């Protein structure tokens, strides 16, 4: 089982700008905090310890107040932040999971960790071809960005790897249409408390 689930969290005040067509700044900030909280909670419920990766003081303070471990990435790229988490994990298994997965549940992380139980790596694509989750042991040459799933899969060609596809890992919040789709699903009903339907029409 993975000892840590590393979760990168952007500054709450500037995250999710591409959702500006659907949410106002206060709603986007509320959404960002709740996504981070729910992702960390899913990690705990799956039996792992959340490790918050951030370069933002407010996010670090929030995470510390929640009792989570924090790893400052000092403004580095997402690839460098992910690498720092693998160094932190040392020789223990780790999962790197994005905090913009509104339908993510602890079951998804439990499945990911189960797929790693025999020493294999696990890789989960997002619906747009990105990588929503990756896990393994030791260091890795991360390559996040558009179409990163295929790059990561290619870089694992010499290792045993299991691909995870669940509702919770497939849908990430990128554009307003993603928010609408997630909010319409029973698992994403909580989003309507962030931005009630009447305020999005």
The whole-angstrom Rg is 16 Å
Q: How is the biggest beta sheet arranged?
A: 7 strands, mixed
Estimate the helix proportion, in percent. Answer: 25-40%
Order of helices and strands: EHEHEHEHEEHEHHH
Low-confidence stretches: none
Strand content: 15-25%
Oligomer: single chain
> What is the CA–CA distance across the termini?
44 Å
- How many separate helices? 8
Strand order of the largest sheet: 3-2-1-4-6-5-7
Shape: globular
Based on DSSP secondary structure assignment, what is the total number of beta strands?
Answer: 7
- Average the pLDDT over all residues and give the rounded result: 91
Concise structural overview:
The chain is an alpha/beta fold and 201 residues long.
Secondary-structure blueprint of this entry?
Layout: E1 4-8, H1 25-45, E2 49-54, H2 57-65, E3 69-72, H3 78-89, E4 93-97, H4 106-115, E5 121-125, E6 131-137, H5 148-155, E7 161-163, H6 167-170, H7 176-184, H8 191-194
Parallel strand pairs: 1-2, 1-4, 2-3, 5-7
Antiparallel strand pairs: 4-6, 5-6
Describe this structure in words.
- Helices cover 38% and strands 17% of the residues.
- Strand 5 and strand 6 (131-137) form a beta hairpin.
- The protein has a seven-stranded mixed beta sheet with strand order 3-2-1-4-6-5-7, sandwiched between helices.
- By secondary structure, the protein is of the alpha/beta class.
- The mean pLDDT is 91.
- It is globular.
